[in-house]
Amino acid sequence: MERRFYWQLGVLLSLTIIVNFALFYWNTVAVQKSEQLNTNWQQITSSNLEKAVLLAKLDQNLGYGGFIHHFKNYVLRREPSYLLGAQTDLSQVYDNIRAFRKLTLTDEEIAAIDIIESTVRTYASKLSEAQSEGYKELSVEQLDVLVRVNDDSAESAQQSLRASLRSSYQQALVLQTKLRNETLSTIKLGASVVSPIVCLAALLNIIALWRIAVLFRERDVLFEVTPDSILYCDKQGHIIRVNKAMEELFGYTKAQLLSMKVEDLIPESYRMRHINLRQDYSGKSKMRHGKKDGLNIVGLHKNGTQLPLDIAIASVNHGAKDFSIAIVRDIRQEEELAIKAERDYLTGVYNRRHAYSLLEDELIRANRYRRPLSLLLIDLDNFKPLNDQEGHFAGDVALKNLCQFLTESARPTDIIGRWGGDEFLIVCPETAHHSVMSFAQRLVKEFAEQAEHGLTLSIGVVAYDFVSDQLSANDCVDQADAALYRAKSRGRNQAVMFEAELLMTST
C-alpha cells in the first residue's frame, strides 16, 4: 500500500512536470506569435502612416492654397504676397520630398517621387523666370504661356503613390489575417491543457502573491533607509510620497511635505520656470539629471536656506495616471570642492590652471564673434623685500589686499587669476587698446596712492582688435610677459603696451 502510494505520487509529480513544460512551451509559442503579429503590424502601419502623412502634406503644399496656387496667382497678379507664399510652400515641398526619400520605398515609389521632384523643380525654375525684369512688360496671357508647366505626370505620380499605399495596406491585412489564424490555432491547442493545471496555478499564484508581499515590504524598508532623498509627485506637482532623507534635507515632516507641491520646495524666483519644465517633461518615461542636463536646480529649506541640488527625474505612466519620481541630492559639498579646485587658496581669485582655461575660452569666443580682447600681466613690485623684512604673513596680507583692489577695480566680466607668486593675470573681454591701457594706468596710479611698504605695480598689457586662429593662450601670456619685462626694466610702477619688438628683445 505504501509502495503504491509513492508510485502514484511519483506518477503525479511526473505528469505535473510534463504538463508544466508543455504549458511553458505553449505560452512561449503563443507569445512569440503574438509579438510577431504586433511587430509586423506596427512596422507596416508605421511605415504606411509616415508615407500617408507625407503624401497628405505634399498634396496640401502642391494643391489648392499651396505652391502651384500661389505660383499661378503671382503670375496673374504680380503681388509680392503670392511670391512669398509660393517660396514658402516650395521650401516645404522640398522638405517633404527629402523626408519621403528617407523612408523605405519601392522602385515604383522612388520613380514617382523623382517625377514629382522634377515637376516641382520645373515650377521653381519658371517662378524664378517670372520674377525677372524682362517679364514685367509681358501681358498676363504671354506670361501664362511662358511659365506653363505640364504637371500631368506629377499628378499621375501622386495617384501612383496613393495606389501603392492602398496596395501595401491590403497586403498587410492579408498577412495579419494569416498570422492571426496561426496564433488562434496555437492558443486553442494550448488551451486544451489548461484545465488540469488550474489548481496548481492557483497554488502557484498564492505563493507568488506571498513573495510579492515580501518584496513590497523590503522595498518600503529600502525606500525609507536609502541615503538619497526621494519623492513621488503627480502631474500637477502634488507630492504623494517621500522618504526619511527628504524630511531631513528640507526640514519638513512627512505630513507637511504630503500637503505641499514640488514648487513649494523651490525659491519663488525659480518657481515659474520649474513649473514650465515640469509640464514639458511630464509623461516622458526617461531619466533626466537636473545638473547634468545644464539645469541649475535650487531647493528651499524650511528655514529659508537655499540648497544647490542635483535631481534625477523619471516620469512614469501608470494606467491613466502620470507621476514622476525624483531622487534629490544635496551638492553643497561638491560645489564647495569645485570652487576650491578653481580658486587660489590664499587670495580667492582663480588659480593659474582655471585662469588659463578661461583665457582659452575667451580667445575662442573673441575669434568666433570677431570681438576685441585684452590681457594684463601684473607684478607686485618690491614684494620680495617685504617678505624678507616683515615676514611671510605681511606678504600674504599684501597679496590679499592687492586681489581685493583688483577685484574692486575690474569689471564683473573681467577674469582675475593668480599666475604665480606675486604675478596676477586679468583677462578683459570686449576691451580694445585705448580702453585697456587707460585701465592699466589707472591701476598703477591708484594702487601706488594707497599701498604701504613702497609696493607698486608693473603691468604688461597686450590688446587684440581681432583674434586669429593661430593665436594661443601661451602666445598671449608670452606677449604680456614681454611687455611686463619692459615695464620693470624701465623702473617699475608703470604699464607698458606690448609691441612686436619687445618679444624679440626679451628673447
Describe this structure in words.
The chain is of the alpha+beta class. The protein has three domains: 176 residues, Four Helix Bundle (Hemerythrin (Met), subunit A), CATH 1.20.120; 110 residues, PAS domain (Beta-Lactamase, 2-Layer Sandwich), CATH 3.30.450.20; 164 residues, Reverse transcriptase/Diguanylate cyclase domain (Alpha-Beta Plaits, 2-Layer Sandwich). It is built from 17 helices and eleven strands. Strands 1, 2, 3, 4, 5 and 6 form a six-stranded antiparallel beta sheet that branches. Strands 8-9-7-10-11 form a five-stranded mixed beta sheet, with helices on both faces. Strand 5 and strand 6 form a beta hairpin. Helix 2 runs antiparallel to helix 3. It starts with a helix and ends with a helix. The mean pLDDT is 78.
| CATH topology description of the largest domain | Four Helix Bundle (Hemerythrin (Met), subunit A)
Segments where pLDDT lies below 50 for 5+ residues? Answer: none
Number of helices: 17
**Radius of gyration using CA atoms only:** 38 Å
β-sheet strand percentage: 5-15%
CATH class of the largest domain: Mainly Alpha
Cα shape = flat
Instruction: Give the helices and strands as they follow along the chain.
Output: HHHHHHHEEHHHEEEEHHEHHEEHEHEH
Quaternary form: single chain
CATH architecture name of the largest domain: Up-down Bundle
Q: The biggest beta sheet, please?
A: 6 strands, antiparallel
Question: What is the count of distinct domains?
Answer: 3
First and last CA, distance:
111 Å
Helix/sheet category: alpha+beta
Q: On the 0-100 scale, what is the average pLDDT?
A: 78
Instruction: Give the total of beta strands.
Output: 11
Provide the helix percentage. Answer: 55-70%
